[in-house]
């Protein structure tokens, strides 16, 4: 009885219609948070005492980097759930995550490079943080390539899930890289909530961007998930129902 | 007017700040476009599957 909600989450027709109904509820807050965050970051926040206006790249760089790790973790967890309990919807979620994560990983790398150029004097350095983030991009691309190499969807699901789960070791490596190694990359300045190193007018837009990007991920994931679920379904009745809407 | 050109100048970091924001905007927009396209492609494909079944593929 208490488990019915869980079983329903594994049911493709239910997920298809639920995702469709939820999408606008995530899309609108996403838009407001990102617009507010960009305005706050570009206009309201004061220039940094060391980096001047150059620090404003943080408002797109840090949330993109957060996306690269958070999306991968989501992908690996749902892939693991799909492997262990053989839930098709979980594999659909994992597969929907990959292109989103890959694009934001690329975005984190390029915006980081554009930030590094004036501050470190170089666009690229084989620094642990940067190198492992680049590896993460290849992991996403490898995951997508592996999926498309199979004709059989079930085999694609299982093989790519295995790859996603193994690759999750890179997530803590990236996160702790600036602490474990003597890195060029600066240590996290946001997560020290007890003693934040930023004034509120700088920090608040950044938090809005983090939340906005996270909700953006959910929004795009919901849209992609509907497509994934629909393309996996072979039962005529509910496809007819789904298309009618 | 002076204020606006100061804003676009980004304290001399314009060449780094604006491309970063532009790229992020592109990534955000493309994510929406790609996701919607993949959904409509799946709907299209499902519609074809349904039509094929109706025109005499034996299963239900």
How does the SSE layout of this entry go?
The complex is a heterodimer of chains A (about 240) and B (about 60).
Chain A: H1 4-9, H2 12-44, H3 58-85, H4 88-120, H5 128-149, H6 153-167, H7 170-180, H8 200-232, H9 236-244
Helix pairs in contact in A: 2-8, 3-4, 3-6, 3-8, 4-5, 4-8, 5-6, 5-7
Chain B: H1 2-9, H2 14-54
Index terms:
heterodimer; A: about 240 residues; mainly alpha; B: about 60 residues; about 80% helix
Order of helices and strands of chain B: HH
Q: Helix count of chain B, per DSSP?
A: 2
Largest interface by residue count? A-B, 41 and 33 residues
Instruction: Summarize the biggest pleated sheet of chain A.
Output: none
Shape of chain B: rod-shaped
In terms of quaternary structure, the protein is: heterodimer
Largest sheet of chain B: none
What gross morphology of chain A would you assign? globular
**Beta-strand proportion of chain A:** under 5%
Estimate the strand proportion of chain B: under 5%
Backbone CA Rg of chain B: 24 Å
Please characterize this protein's 3D structure.
The complex is a heterodimer of chains A (245) and B (60). Chain A has 245 residues and is mostly helical. Chain A is built from nine helices and no strands. In chain A, helix 3 crosses helix 6 (153-167) and helix 4 packs antiparallel against helix 5. Chain A is globular and about 65 Å long. Chain A starts with a helix and ends with a helix. In chain A, 40% of the residues are buried. Chain B is mainly alpha-helical and 60 residues long. Chain B contains two helices and no strands. The longest helix of chain B has 41 residues, at 14-54. Chain B is rod-shaped. The mean pLDDT of chain B is 89. The chains are: A mainly alpha (245), B mainly alpha (60). The interface between A and B is large, with 41 and 33 residues.
